[in-house]
Amino acid sequence: MKSEGIYQELWGILTSYNIVRLEMAAMAKEHKVEPLRISFLNALYLIQDEFIWASGRSPGAVPNALKMLRENGKRLILPNKRKRKAYPRAVLKRPAKYPTRTREKKATRS
């Protein structure tokens, strides 16, 4: 493979990534959530499927398909992130390999 082919592949991947992110931003705006709350992988799969189905449709049907794609974006919304604990994590002591021997205290005479 020549270097031009490698550059072409990289540009294709970067273009695809930006198209997916752009659609995610449009879905987020439509559903009034942050774009980071939409799953990238699921959006990528949904857009891939839509491109496969769009190849067999007439060009006039693409706007309706794009509208349906954005409406289906509601399924991709992730739940809110959990809040962090109010207390810091504690590091537990490492247990001893062998039991330790302790001296018994001598009883004092009364």
From TrEMBL:
User: Where is the stretch described as Disordered?
Assistant: 82-110
Residue ranges, compositional bias (Basic residues): 82-96
Biased composition annotated in UniProt, kind: Basic and acidic residues: 101-110
Name of the protein in question: Transposase
What organism does the UniProt record list as the source? Enterovibrio norvegicus DSM 15893
